[in-house]
Amino acid sequence: MKKSFLTIVSLVAISLTAVAQKQVSSKTQIKFFSTTPAEDIEAFNVKSTSTFDPKTGELVFSIPMQSFEFSKSLMQEHYNSKNFLDTKKYPRAKLKGKVNISDIDLKKNDMYEIDVAGELTIKDITNTFYEKAVISVVNGKVAISSKFNIKLEDYGIVFLKGKPSTNISKSVAITVQSEYINN
């Protein structure tokens, strides 16, 4: 009886520790989309990583900027160029955010609409943000998704004349999806 009780206590302690550990996602997908009179522009990045700390509610995303893939090679070339994102000089974007973890029960299968507050850094320019997201919990696994818009000029991406001024949207829709595992 004593061994059974100790075994149960140990299993509960291990499961509580697993929930409290920082979770890592190598299954992070980021997409951006914009539409212009000339054409739609869409790119996908599946090489981003993310961490989620269930104790503090902290989220961190690291985005390798050269890993965005476009359907047209010319779009990709323009995107990576010095005139646009200069991905050689600024190889990573970073998003740091925080959610109110007290609103989420990580032991219960459910979906939670949450607010994420934090900072987004692109081209060494950091801006604060406040966006909506959804946290899904299924059998102890956490997934986070969000869709929001950013203004390119907020990150030093401005075209005042020529084709880029009319062929590139002033804002882009960003979609983020991450699935986490315990670290």
UniProtKB/TrEMBL annotation:
<keyword id="KW-0732">Signal</keyword>
<feature type="signal peptide">
    <location>
        <begin position="1"/>
        <end position="20"/>
    </location>
</feature>
<dbReference type="InterPro" id="IPR007372">
    <property type="entry name" value="Lipid/polyisoprenoid-bd_YceI"/>
</dbReference>
<dbReference type="InterPro" id="IPR036761">
    <property type="entry name" value="TTHA0802/YceI-like_sf"/>
</dbReference>
<feature type="domain" description="Lipid/polyisoprenoid-binding YceI-like">
    <location>
        <begin position="44"/>
        <end position="179"/>
    </location>
</feature>
<protein>
    <submittedName>
        <fullName>Polyisoprenoid-binding protein YceI</fullName>
    </submittedName>
</protein>
<dbReference type="Pfam" id="PF04264">
    <property type="entry name" value="YceI"/>
</dbReference>
